[in-house]
Amino acid sequence: MTEELRLLKEKHIKYIEALDKKQDSYEYWLTEHLRLNGVYWGLTALCLMDAENTFDKTQVIDFVLKCYVEATGGFAPFPRHDAHLLTTLSAIQILKTYDSLDILSPDQVKKCIEFVRGNQLEDGSFQGDKFGEIDIRFVYTALSTLSILESLTPEVVEPAVKFILRCYNFDGGFGLCPGAESHAAWAFTSLGALAIVDRLGDLTDEQLNEIGWWLCERQVPEGGLNGRPGKLPDVCYSWWVLASLALINKLEWIDYEKLREYILRCQDEKKGGISDRPDNEVDVFHTLFGIAGLSLMGFEDLKPIDPVYCMPPSVTKTIRKYPYE
Ligand SMILES: [Zn+2]
């Protein structure tokens, strides 16, 4: 590999900008169920590239408000859809990034908090919505949302922490529920959730070392990271694995240069954007997580990213830390 690889920042900005203007296309409607998440991924990637003004703030906020579901208090991926925890977090992240949470009325905020809390189950876990799909992602999603809204309480936090610790496996990974196979995405959501409520200290040094080993073994010879043993590498694990390592102060256990090269090889040199693997179709999800990974490693002159919240530290530094004084 002798060619000089670099981040094609201008092309990625154009790629994300174009997504915002594709409202008439088939592709746009096809991904309707992801729309609000997509706006968050795009906006955060733009922030990292110091181009957050690429989106029209007023239009984005207007769209977020249209996704608010009066009946339940959560946010849907798209107007007139059902609310879900994942898109509720995206809505709150977007408003927080724009320093515009106060556009919600006190009553809307109150109902939103109730929506999140109302999805917690007896064992401390959360369901994503009334259809009852459960996994540890939703614990992270719920705690992150409540944290940004500064409304965490011990009644929510204590059972959630217990549930997360039950998802820890002896191989050093975390499963999506107690006893399930370890997966890098669950490592991030577990560690991120514990970090949000200042409970990483509930893990012993020995466990943290095991976790570090399990995570750094995700790097494959071609430089990319996989989600679990024996699987192909994928750019989004540049976030799940690297952010996890950052949270337990073991980021340097990864070979930065090789991972950087892998991420840059997944860029579409013509239209911009980053894919999961070299030569695959790009999407905004992998574009964000590729860029976020490069930012965590300090490459390409990018803005920093907070490994706990996946938002710029300039935004998250204003979130009140739990436990509240
Ligand atoms: Zn992926």
From TrEMBL:
Residues 7-311 form the Prenyltransferase alpha-alpha toroid domain. It comes from the Eukaryota. Its cofactor is Zn(2+). This is Geranylgeranyl transferase type-2 subunit beta. Catalyzes the transfer of a geranylgeranyl moiety from geranylgeranyl diphosphate to both cysteines of proteins with the C-terminal sequence -XXCC, -XCXC and -CCXX. It holds the Pfam family Prenyltrans. One of its GO terms (cellular component) is Rab-protein geranylgeranyltransferase complex. Heterodimer of an alpha and a beta subunit. Binds 1 zinc ion per subunit. One of its GO terms (biological process) is protein localization to membrane. The lineage of its organism: Eukaryota, Fungi, Dikarya, Ascomycota, Saccharomycotina. Its EC number is 2.5.1.60. Keywords: Metal-binding, Prenyltransferase, Repeat, Transferase, Zinc. It is an enzyme of class 2 (transferase).
